[in-house]
Each structure stands twice: as structure tokens, then as C-alpha cells.
Amino acid sequence: MIPAAFDYTVPGSLDEAIDALRDGGEDAKLLAGGHSLVPLMKLRLAAPTLLVDLRRVPGLHGIERQNGSWRIGAMTRHAELQDRHDDLGVVAHAAAGIADQQVRNRGTIGGSLAHGDSASDLPTILLTLEGTVTAMGPDGAREIAAADLFQDYLTTSLDPLEIITEVRMPAMDGWGHGYQKFTRRAEDWAMVGVAAVVRKNDDGTVAEARIGLTNMGSTPLRATAAEEALVGQPLTAEAIAAAAGHAADGTNPPADRNASEDYKRHLACVLTGRALREAAGLA
Amino acid sequence: MTAIDDRAAAAPHRGQSLRRKEDPRLITGRASYTDDLNITGQLHAAIVRSPEAHAKIVSIDTSAALERDDVVAVYTGEDMADLLGPLPMAWVPPGVDVQNPPHWPLARGTVKHVGDPVAIVLSEDRGAAIDGAEDVFVEYEPLPVCMDIETALEDGAALTHPEIGTNKCHEWSLGGGDIEAGFAAADVIVERRVVNHRVSGAPIEPRGVLADYRAGALTLHTSTQVPHFVRLFAALILGINEEKIRVIAPEVGGGFGAKLQVTGEEMLCSWASRKSGRPVKWIETRSEHMAVCHHGRDQVATVRLGATKDGRLTAIHSKILADMGAYLMLLTPAVPSLGAFVMSGVYDIPAVQTDITTVFTNKCATDAIRGAGRPEATHMIEVCMDQLADELGMDRLELRRKNFIPKDDFPHETALGIVYDSGNYEGALDLLMEKLDLPALEAEKAELAAKGIRRGIGYSTYTEICGLAPSRITGPEGFGLQTGLWESAIVRVTVTGNVVVYTGTSPHGQGHETTMAQIVADKLGVDPAQVEIMHGDTGTGAMGLGTYGSRTTAVGTEAVARAADKVVEKARSIVSHLLEAAPEDIEVHDGKFSVKGSPDKGLALAEVSGVAHVQPEKMPQGMEPGLEETSFYDPENFVFPFGAHACIVDVEEDTGKVKVVRYVAIDDCGPAINPMVIDGQVHGGIAQAIGQALYEHVMYDDTGQLVTGTFVDYALPTAAELPSFETDRTETPSPVNSLGVKGIGEAGTIAATPAVVNAVIDALKPLGVTYMNMPLGPEAVWTAIQEAGQ
């Protein structure tokens, strides 16, 4: 497969990249890892006129702890996240399950979040951890909360001239976590995925629970009914099962050839139970 | 010297897992596939394909494409009026009327499925050709589509070919024994609807063509399994003398039947090269491959299997509805019939009947994909054997053993009049059970069930019919294939004593460069490294019919062996003359042609060849110089590999997800030439069958749009989905050929789907699930569990 003709530029700074986007017009696209965009171009489902490659823009790499959060450069590859279970927790866990190793070696966190595919794993993680992205545009930088970033299918609140520069994931010290991704084949997108993070009170009851759903709607979702059902409960298998039964409440998941709506709702409940048991250390 | 040492000295390479001679170039990326070839001055082709499943072509506007600087030419079906005929279909069963609507390289007037080619765009640059194709504007008037074979023959169904007046393509039956009496004698009859859904061959190298017509001759490089067929039909369709056409299959990156075809693209590019005066190259994209390279299977059968209450089989009847797709390609309508020949499987069944009805739909054509009819038949039999065992309340292996054709009853003529060459079905099953450790597997069941995991074990005991040949059975007056199915080979000893073998077969990954070399090396007393196997080129000598139907070892290698035997005979005559010994006293031993009892006294092949080429005056009076022989071989019978497979699955009760945790395969393809190569074939075959059973499914929606157009949607399993296969062999020689060998390329695919499905049903029996059809994706399994629980 050969994409339609396009121009290509490799800016050396963020300002140059923003200028290139502006000059390129509405069909200019940013290229990060290319593992969402390039397949679409090969199939000619996307035909950008200009690719602005971010690989030489300084400052978009690295993973650092800052003020209770992890600052992850937007061009950080999934492969750089996947082995850091000890400090990145559920972020590493989810990154390790993205597609296959070749994709993880190229795909980037910023690219995945900007693509905004609700079947992808990292948008769900960002939403579940209540992280933020920093976007740089012609008028400077702004921070966008996960809940505000994902708007609809493959649609984010990023302005066309904005570039995600970094991602902030709260460190979640002391929280238990789990991510359960259900696929037909190891390399597939999630049929449904569920992230769960849980913080307990000293008495062992749940102080706070957050549950995020992958591929259960046009954006990543929070299973708020299940979260609420857990708060104040002891983190037992019974309480988890009761809460997990609410995981799909209010969702309207897109059916596809692998899974009907009903089956996806069912999977969301099953996987929420598994993710919570994982978070609780009961798995 | 012991007898074993003697054998090893006489055949030191046969039976050894020699590393494959072809692998260094394949593994290091040094192999040349069609896309690696370029000819100065070549044009790149892109093909404009129909987005509609069924439509009248109202108009084709090529002006915008032609206005592009980089587009050299655009041709449509109207430009190709000089073809002498449509694309071939090579099956004319005597006395059977087969509807065969014309199928052209570019559509004429109507399109019949998504991807049907409408125009070809030629450009200096491949990307520009694709851009040009996007600038060809075709106006379509959509027509009603026929997408479901089970309703296609009802009154009022949309017609794929309105001019025929029905969607029925043909009917064909094969029976033996008294089927009514068989069912009358049955105490128990099970009847099941058995679906063998549509799959893709999906070789990792898609198809590709580089056609070069110049000075009245055509050189056609094509990624094919059948270069000689392609040459023959290119001659007939394009009106070029056969001797002016050379078809070359370069390195071919997998075929699986998908390249057992004479394709529209081959004819189209050859025609376009002649028309444009430039070489024309076309490389298929994966999306094209999924949409337009023929698919396989797609049968819905109603299978009835009868037995007495003590488990003696009395009759089997399969009524098969088979989806042809929109056109008949080389063997499309014949494929379901191939299964009919083994519809009684490994069992002694007195009455066997298969009735096939084939149907046109607005989908890509089906044709042979690895196994071609036999996987479907084996699936029908082996799934129904488990169903029958349950109905009888009998152990499924006991039922099988009770009905096995006993090992002392070979050759065995079945109720259909087919003669199975050799077999030892109990032996294969015994070895399987030894490897399986059933008690340990059973012991884990309860523990797993407590965790919501249901373990199941499924079996498949199978035989298949392969080594396609013999012409007297398969040919025009027999089964109806319009060709003989012999093979030929040339064995040429070079002046320096190395050996070049020309085979008419066309291997594409199987390893015949190694296995043929092992056979020839042993016969001629040389090292396999000194034996080069040339194949896949109609210009190099040996004629042949290609590689498919697990025929290359049983037919092609036998031809090679026979040619090598002739060389040995000539060499013995020369040596006996030189050493003044009787020819019958000359043997090949330890790399030398030596006098029996005097191993020191002898000549190496190089010395013999030196005489034959350099000093022919030293040869016996009147003997022709040189050391080269040809053999044509047409076997007396098919060969019938067999075996016993077991699949162990763990099924998640709460999601329906199936995991294959072990797969144990015992196969018998006669005495092994190279066990590692056999294992490789079995591994790939099983992987493909697990793919069909659990993952792969070519799907169209109701409007005829292809849903599974990429590897994202068409779920080819990867190593991550598959267990490490456990394989072993029994070795029962075939009396059909001198090597005693049977084919093994398709056996895994033929055997494995019912083992997987039976395992899943076995796993879910405690939950009330009694029967399921493929593919067993998680939602289908979960739904079956839910329905059984209600």
C-alpha cells in the first residue's frame, strides 16, 4: 500500500513545528510514532498534505517524577513505559499490553492521546488517573484535564495548531491498581478494557476507587456507578462482585464484528471484577 | 556390519532432519520474490476495482487519469476484445451440467463482487499508478445482491447471474453401498448442520506479476504454485504459442492454494505488456488479496450419521451446500467433491453418500485452500462422531476404535470404490494416547472448574486423499479434471559430479529443495549439498503440473527418484564396464559405485561423470555420452496419509474465551524423508486449522461489502495464540510409490478443526452445551453457555 503524495518536514523546535502546522493548512498533520496515522495513510483513509515530524523537537522525551506526578514527554515510546511497573504502575501495565513489541517500540504516549481512539489503552489510563496533558499552541501552553480532552470518536479538544508536549500522570502512591484488556489475539485492540485504581482507608474500607473503561463508548469512560458502589466497602471479593455488576451502567458501547453491545457490557462487568481483584491483591 | 549400518550406508540422508537448504537465503532476506524483480522500462499497474457487490457499469471515465503526466495508459474490459476466451475453469465432470458464466480479466458490463476489476492503470511509478486509479471514475447502477447460500435457491432470491435464471451452479453426487438400508439398520441417527465457513489462504507474500512481452515472446514472472498451467492458459487466452511463453515462479512466499490459480491479473498484465510494448508489473496489496484472491471453504452441510446401538456405523450422508462466489475459477466447483472421496474417513462404513449443490453469490470466488474439500469432510465426520458417541452414551474413542478399518485390511476398498493404500489407525491413536497422559489432564479439570475454567479434550482421527494424480481417476473420463496429473523430472549429473534436478513441481516454502536432494544424494552416493533442485520455471526443462494437493513428494519426488534410478543404472553400466564386473554386482556404497564385497574398488560419481562427459570413448560400446535421465510418473493410485490428533482447551466460563493449551498430533505420511520438514508442515497446518476453528472468518455484510479486508479484522492467529505443538509419527509405507511416501502438506489443516471444536464442546458439556459450529470466537462461546443455562 502506498499513501497519497504528501510533503514532509522535520522542525527543530516547537515554534517551528507550530509554524509548519499553520503554514500547512487544515490537512497538515503531526507525526509522532506514526502507528495510528501511517496505517490510515497506507489504506488512503487519511491523506494529509503535510506531515510535521516531531522527532527532532527537543524536550518531548523523558519520564520524571515532579510534585507527586509523573511527567512523561509526549514522544515517549510505549516501550519506555512498559517495563516500569514499580514506579509507573498501571501506566506501565497498560503500555505493556499495547499491540505488539514492534508497535510499542515506535508508538508514543502523546500520539496515542492526541489520536483519541477510545479503543486504545492509554486514553483510559489518563482518564482513570485524572491526569492531564500540556498542549503548546501559538498562544502558549495550556493544561487540559483528561475529562476535557476526549470529546468523541477520534476527536479531542486540542486546537489544530496545538501540540501535546507532556503528559502528567498522578503517581498514585499507595493505590492498588489493575488493568484488564480483553482481546481475541494478543496484538488486537481491546474488545473491552478496564483500568481500576483503589485507595483504602486505614480500616481497610475503600476510600476512593476509580474505574476506567476502554472501547465502551465514543471516548474512554469512567464507571462511576461501580466506583460509588465500592466506596466505604471492605475490598472483599463479594463487594467487588457487587460493584462490578454496575460497571456497564449507562454505557452505550459500539458493537463490532467481534462483540455485540450486550456482550461488551457483560465483558465490562467481568473485567471490572478482575481489575478490582487485581488492584486489591486478590487475583 | 549390522543390517542397520548397511541401511545407513545405503541411505545415509533419508530420515535425517537435515537443515533446509533453502533457509539461509530465506532467513537472511536474500531470496528474490516477484516484487524484488525489475526489468528496465517496466510500467507499474494499479487495478481499479468495484466498490459494489453487484452493479451494472454505466460508464467509465478515464480522462482525468489519462491527463495525469505520470499515467501512460488506462485500459478497460472493452479494450480487451482480442482475448480468445475467458479465464479458465478446468473441471468438466462427465454427465454433469456446470453453469460457468464467463469470467474476464476486466469486467465487461457488470461487476459481480466487491473488488471485481474494472480497469488497469499503467504508470512509470507505482504510487502514481495508484493515484491514477483513483482518478478513474466509474458510474455504477447497483443491482440486488445474493449473499446467503441457504436462501439463494429460494424463489425471488436476487440472482448473481440473472442470465442463468438461477443461483444454482451444479449438482454432483458420489455414493456407494445402500444408503437407505444403512440408515434403516441404524438404531441411532444423529443429524447436524455443519458449517465450514469462508477463510482466506493469506500467504505472507501476496500475489505479484511481472509480465514482459517482447519480440513475439512472453516472459511471465508470477507468484504461483502452477507455472505450467499458467503457461498453457496464457497461450490459449492470449493467442501466443506455448513455446513462446516462459512462466517463472520466483521465490514464492507461501501459497496455501491461493496461488493454485490462473489469475485475471496474470492474463491482464501479460496482455497489457503486449498492448503497451513495455514490461508490466503488478504487486497485490494485502487489502486486494483479502478481497479478490480466491477464498476457501464456505460450505453448509447437513450430515446424518447412523449406527447400531452397540456403536457399529451403518451409514453417513452429507448434503452439502457450497458457495462458489461470483465466478468459477480454475477448480472452484470441484473443491467440495474432493471431500466426498473420503466421506467415510478412517471408518468402515457400508453406505456412504454425498450430495453437493453449489451456489453463486456476490462474493469473491472460492477455490482450493489448503486441504480443499477434505478439511470440510473431515470436520463433518469427526464432529459428528463425537455427537454420535454422546447420543449412544459411548466413549468417543471406543466408538472410533470399533469402526476403524483394521490395519490388516489394507489396501482397503471403501463403499465408494476408493482404495485406501495403507493404514494403521489404531497404531496412531495408541501413540497419541501414550503422549497425551489423559489421567493428568483429567485430574486438573476439577481444580480448573473451581476457578471458572472449563477444560476440554477433543480428538480427530483422520485420513485424507492426496498425491493428486492419478490421471486415470482424476482425468477427463474419470473425475473430470481437464488435465493429466503426472509429474516429470530430469536428473543431470554435471561434468564435475554434482547433480542438478529439474522438477515440474513448484514448491513455495515446503522444503523440497532439501527433501528431494536427500533422496537423490542417497541414490547417487553424493552429499545433498551437491544436489541442486531447480523448479518453478517452464523454461528449464521438466514439465509438470505444480505443487498442491500434497502431491509434490508422492508424485514429484517419486518422478525425481525414478529419474535418479535411471542415472544409477547408467552409472552402474559404465562402472561395470570400467571395472570389468557384472552390472548387478555394482552397488552405491559409502559414496562410491563399487563392486559388491570390494568396497575399496569403486568410482565416485564425479569419476563416472568425468568418463561420461570427458572420455565417452571409455563408456560401453554404443552408449550415449552424458549422465542425465528423464522420468515421467503417473501413479496408479492416490496416497492416504492418516493420523490421530488431540486438542486440549481451557475455556473461560465468564467470557467464553478459548485457549488452546496443548495440541498433540500423530501423523503418518509413510517413512520420513526429513522429520523436521514434516514437523514444519504439520505445525503450519495445525496453526491454519486452529485459525479457522477459533479466529479466522472472511465476512461480508448483507450488502456485499467485505468486512474483513485487513489483518486487523481478519484474525490470523500469531505465535501468541498458539501452543507449542507436540508432534510425532508412525510410519506405514504406501505401496503406491517406490519411496513409500504420502503427502503431509495439508494433513494438519485437514485433521485439526474438529479436534478443536470437539474439545470446546467437551469443555462445555458440564454447562449443558452439546454442539457448536465454527468459528468459536468468545462471544459465540459465551452465548452458547448462556443459552445452555436457560
From TrEMBL, chain A:
Lineage of the species this protein comes from: Bacteria, Bacillati, Actinomycetota, Thermoleophilia, Solirubrobacterales
InterPro entries associated with the record: CO_DH_flav_C, CO_DH_flav_C_dom_sf, Diverse_Substr_Oxidored, FAD-bd_PCMH, FAD-bd_PCMH-like_sf, FAD-bd_PCMH_sub1, FAD-bd_PCMH_sub2, Mopterin_DH_FAD-bd
Top-level lineage group: Bacteria
Name under which the protein is recorded: Xanthine dehydrogenase family protein subunit M
Residues making up the signal peptide according to the UniProt record: none
Zinc recorded as keyword: no
Any Pfam family: CO_deh_flav_C
The keyword DNA damage appears for this protein: no
Residue ranges of domain FAD-binding PCMH-type in the record: 1-174
Keywords associated with the record: FAD, Flavoprotein, Oxidoreductase
From TrEMBL, chain B:
Listed Pfam families: Ald_Xan_dh_C, MoCoBD_1, MoCoBD_2
Domain Aldehyde oxidase/xanthine dehydrogenase a/b hammerhead as annotated: residue spans: 28-144
Xref: Gene3D superfamilies: Aldehyde oxidase/xanthine dehydrogenase, a/b hammerhead, Aldehyde oxidase/xanthine dehydrogenase, molybdopterin binding domain
SMART domains, sorted: Ald_Xan_dh_C
Keyword Thylakoid recorded: no
Superkingdom of origin organism: Bacteria
Record region (Disordered): 1-26
Keyword Oxidoreductase: yes
Keywords, comma-separated and alphabetical: Molybdenum, Oxidoreductase
PANTHER family tied to this protein: ALDEHYDE OXIDASE 1-RELATED, XANTHINE DEHYDROGENASE
Name of this chain's protein: Xanthine dehydrogenase family protein molybdopterin-binding subunit
